Automatic annotation (TrEMBL):
It comes from the Bacteria. Residues 75-93 have a biased composition (Low complexity). This is VWA containing CoxE family protein. Residues 75-97 are annotated as: Disordered. It comes from Hyphomonas beringensis.
């Protein structure tokens, strides 16, 4: 039965429910105490150990009801079905019935359920990952139960070319259809438990690796969910408080002063502790047509982490520079982006004008604690890039990060001034996917640890 619990924990993990090794051991010990007889008690016990947040509780309830479901026939059948799961969990051989036809004709739901569970174990149905595998695993289950002999008997009945043979064939066809449907139901249940989370994770990994410029409208809702998960992951990572420990460089002066009353014997040792700075980000975004899609996801990610980075300021430009904090804070994100594009996204791109506006109106925001983050391709329509102003901003800031959606092979071609800005940046990166944005934001926040 421990295998049943570990399999259930595997299903939880595939559905984004975090379960540590210690919590898994606690679950096994708790179930050993309460047993499996009382379904409600089992659910409450596992829920207390494995579900730690409201979202995880919802996922736990859904998976528990599917994983520990029982066919509602009779009390005797239900108990036998539970026993069959216990036997199938330790099965290492096929254990197929000697006569599948007799089994199906008997109408013994207990024996049929036992055979189906054994076949599912032999076919390793719980390894299913995608919905397209349901038919394959169902066929493997039928094969494990003796489906080949049933098929041979069906062909023999059809070859007789008699009324009795046709009647027998019809009966066998109906029997095979019933068996196949049972196998598909068992396989679908395995997919609902083990496969859906894996499929969702596969789709999210694919979406996170897809070029943001290639996304269409149908991808937006999924990407919003994915951005929220990334923001939560980064927030947990960078909001974690470090435990103070006796380590680091010895502070001799403070140690001697603290032990002056003990004849200088250093009973109380004091270590120098480096103060952790609070993150401060000023993000300047080129919202011209070639970059706007990337800006959308960068701002969505950053504003989803406002609790971690409360000192966050955003500016958008194509020609003139605009402070867009008010739009992002007071309106739903999609409405805010539409307003930002309407206000700042209609002019001819001019990085020089943007730096001039930043100098005149907002230079005081950039100090030694500030990370200046720029999202843009550096194409300024052959205007003056005002690298002198950008150099001043970079010298005032803690770090200067430039995120460029164009590949390095295009840097410096045509009206691109990106190579003239690069000497003043601590880091200049090519960002094409959501994973690239996550990595860039993670690096920025890590600099404050």
């Amino acid at each position: 039965m421990d295998r049943q619990i570990t399999s259930f924990i595997r299903a939880l993990r595939s559905s984004d429910v975090r379960v540590s090794t210690g919590e898994a051991l606690d679950a096994v010990r708790a179930v050993a105490m309460v047993g499996y007889a009382d379904r409600a008690l089992l659910k409450d016990t596992l829920g207390c150990v494995l579900a730690k947040s409201p979202d995880e509780k919802v996922t736990f309830d859904e998976l528990f009801d599917v994983y520990f479901s029982r066919k509602d026939t009779t009390t005797e059948s239900a108990g036998a079905s539970e026993q069959s799961q216990e036997e199938s969990s330790g099965a290492t051989a096929k254990n197929t019935p000697q006569n599948l036809v007799e089994l199906m004709e008997s109408g013994d739901e207990t024996a049929i359920a036992t055979a189906i569970e054994k076949a599912a174990s032999a076919a390793e149905v719980d390894d299913i990952r995608f919905s397209t595998q349901v038919a394959y695993y169902a066929q493997q289950m039928v094969k494990q139960m003796g489906g080949e002999s049933l098929q041979a008997r069906l062909l023999d009945a059809l070859s007789q070319h008699t009324d009795e043979g046709e009647a027998e064939a019809e009966r066998l066809i109906e029997m095979r259809r019933d068996l196949t449907m049972r196998a598909r139901e068992r396989t679908q249940r395995a997919f609902d438990v083990f496969g859906k989370g894996e499929t969702r994770q596969f789709r999210e990994d694919y979406a996170a690796s897809k070029r943001l410029s290639a996304l269409d409208r149908s991808d937006m809702e999924r990407m919003k969910v994915l951005v929220a998960k990334i923001a939560k992951r980064l927030a947990v990572k960078h909001s974690r408080r470090r435990k103070k420990k006796s380590r680091g460089q010895l502070d001799v002066r403070r140690t001697m002063r603290a032990n002056a009353g003990m004849d200088g014997v250093p009973f109380n040792v004091i270590w120098r502790q480096k103060k952790r700075e609070r993150p401060k980000i000023v993000v300047v975004c080129d919202v011209s047509g070639s970059v706007a899609q990337y800006v959308r996801f960068l701002l969505l990610l950053l504003w989803s982490m406002k609790d971690v980075v409360p000192d966050l300021h955003a500016f958008a430009f194509s020609g003139r520079l605009y402070d867009v904090d008010e739009y992002l804070e007071d309106k739903p994100f999609e409405e805010a982006m539409a307003e930002i594009m309407r206000v700042a996204g209609l002019g001819s791109t001019s990085y020089g004008q943007a730096w001039s506006d930043l100098k005149v109106d907002h230079e005081q925001l950039i100090d030694r604690r500030t990370t200046l983050m720029v999202m843009g391709d550096g194409r300024s329509n052959y205007g003056d890039p005002r690298t002198d102003l950008f150099r001043d901003f970079a010298s005032r800031a803690k770090r200067t990060i430039w995120l460029n959606p164009e590949g390095p092979g295009l840097w410096g071609t045509g009206d691109s001034e990106i190579l003239r800005y690069r000497p003043y940046c601590n880091q200049m990166s090519h960002v094409a996917t959501l994973k690239d944005l996550e990595r860039a934001v993670d690096d920025v926040l890590s600099a404050y640890n």
